[in-house]
């Protein structure tokens, strides 16, 4: 049980560089593994999810050295991976699981992917079905893990995606890179494009065209190991941006944070809500990067629909929190995907914010929040439900409350942000920091 910090009288202040991007960290390991030569990664995210992917790749015969946040991958090429002796345990990592499904579908050996209780409840048919269009042979257990992948020669195809998911798209790209001709993948809505950018950086040819984003993948490129520095994770920085926006008298600056436009939904939402946000981009090859400063202000309500969701999917718990402080009714729809994350995030957001007296109602695909209702603590025992993003959102919510609150299963933050509580403490006055 962790004691959460209560509202700091003078707000949060300071400057922070958050750890490396989770999505990019997974992808760099995988692309480094199938490249020729060495890939050196700086500012790698050493959180449980990315370490699950790292461990899985080692079990597939890829030498990987890790010293703090610097990782060195010795590339084995597309044909140099070897069958793992045991099932690959991806722990809590949806991204690692789905991306590896795409990679392993085209290998010359069989693999089995397993995960923890949460990952074992998450839908995997969404990746198995479109991969089958390339000739992949994947067996699931009623649509879930364990996933048995029978490595095959894959065939070029055209795939129309049915779910807005960068994980599914990336699995398809990794499979299409091993196919016998060019493939095209059509998205329902644009999703994060880190895989596309990285494949190009490693020497491959993946092109994107059109509003509905058709991705064309040229097969069997020789990829070459790279040296790169991963930007700070927007999804981690988002906790402190939200804290700065909703805790009176705050001003917080996040440096070296990733500004890929497929990830910056929260910045636009904050601006639309009347938040005070200053963005200073820096010149950086590959992935956009910059500094963001957020200052506290009274927020307005917002309406979000399906097309707004992919660029803010992991920050929607924070959007709920922002809306809970706004001077009107916010409505978020088109976000059914939240039900398929580490927890059913619509259910866990609603259950936990209600403990603070927030006027929030669940919809099948989102929620309605009346920020005009005053908060009052109904239950001081908040629960992460084992979901890292819910736990961190609640720690930020606690900064709007003067009653001491506790958080169960706070260790869930290790999934994406092991130093979250230390970094938060840096922005708080010393006496506000609790054990
Ligand atoms: O591709 C990725 O790195 C991710 C894509 C998103 O999932 P979906 O593809 O399921 O939307 C996101 O929620 C996840 O945290 C990371
Ligand atoms: C949904 C998430 O991750 P994953 O799907 O990789 O488990 C997340 O980090 O919020």
UniProtKB/TrEMBL annotation:
**Keyword terms of this UniProt record:** Amino-acid biosynthesis, Aromatic amino acid biosynthesis, Cytoplasm, Transferase
Q: List locations, semicolon-separated.
A: Cytoplasm
The Enolpyruvate transferase domain sits at: 8-424
Report the active site residues. 314 (proton acceptor)
Does the keyword section mention Ribonucleoprotein? Answer: no
Query: Which amino acids does the record list as binding 3-phosphoshikimate?
Result: 22-23, 27, 165, 167, 314, 341
User: What is the recorded name of this protein?
Assistant: 3-phosphoshikimate 1-carboxyvinyltransferase
Native organism is Lactiplantibacillus fabifermentans DSM 21115
């Amino acid at each position: 049980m962790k004691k959460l910090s209560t509202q700091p009288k003078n707000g949060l202040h300071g400057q922070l560089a958050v750890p490396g991007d989770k999505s990019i960290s997974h992808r760099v390991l995988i692309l480094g593994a199938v490249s020729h030569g060495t890939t050196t990664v700086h500012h790698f995210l050493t959180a449980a999810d990315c370490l699950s992917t790292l461990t899985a790749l080692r079990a597939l015969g890829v030498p990987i050295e890790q010293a703090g946040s610097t990782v060195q991958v010795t590339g084995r090429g597309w044909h140099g991976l070897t069958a793992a002796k045991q099932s690959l345990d991806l722990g809590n990592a949806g991204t690692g699981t789905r991306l590896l499904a795409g990679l392993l579908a085209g290998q010359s050996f069989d693999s089995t992917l397993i995960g923890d209780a949460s990952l074992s409840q998450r839908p995997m048919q969404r990746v198995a079905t479109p991969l089958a269009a390339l000739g992949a042979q994947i067996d699931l257990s009623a649509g879930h893990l364990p996933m048995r992948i029978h490595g095959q020669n894959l065939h070029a195809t055209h795939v129309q995606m049915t779910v807005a998911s960068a994980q599914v798209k990336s699995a398809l790209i990794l499979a299409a890179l091993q196919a016998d001709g060019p493939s095209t993948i059509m998205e329902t809505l644009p999703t994060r494009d880190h895989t596309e950018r990285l494949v190009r950086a490693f020497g491959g040819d993946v092109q994107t065209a059109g509003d509905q984003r058709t991705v064309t993948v040229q097969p069997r490129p020789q990829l070459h190991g790279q040296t790169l520095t991963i930007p700070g994770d927007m999804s981690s920085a988002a906790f402190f941006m939200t804290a700065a926006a909703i805790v009176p008298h705050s001003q917080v600056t996040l440096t070296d944070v990733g500004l890929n436009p497929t990830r910056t939904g929260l910045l636009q939402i904050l601006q639309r809500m009347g938040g005070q946000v200053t963005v200073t981009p820096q010149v950086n090859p590959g992935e956009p990067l910059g500094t963001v400063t957020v200052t506290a202000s009274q927020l307005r309500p917002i309406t979000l629909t399906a097309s707004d969701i992919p660029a803010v999917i992991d920050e929607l718990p924070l959007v709920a929190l922002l809306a809970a402080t706004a001077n009107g009714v916010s409505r978020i729809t088109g976000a059914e995907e939240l039900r398929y994350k580490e927890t059913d995030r619509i259910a866990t957001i609603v259950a936990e914010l209600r403990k603070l007296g927030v006027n929030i109602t669940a919809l099948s695909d989102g929620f309605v929040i009346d920020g005009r209702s005053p908060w009052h603590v109904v239950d001081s025992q908040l629960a992460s439900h084992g979901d890292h993003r819910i736990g961190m959102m609640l720690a930020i919510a606690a900064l709007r409350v003067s009653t001491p609150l506790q958080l169960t299963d706070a260790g869930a933050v290790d999934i994406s942000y092991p130093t979250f509580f230390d970094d938060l403490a840096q922005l708080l006055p010393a006496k506000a920091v609790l054990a």
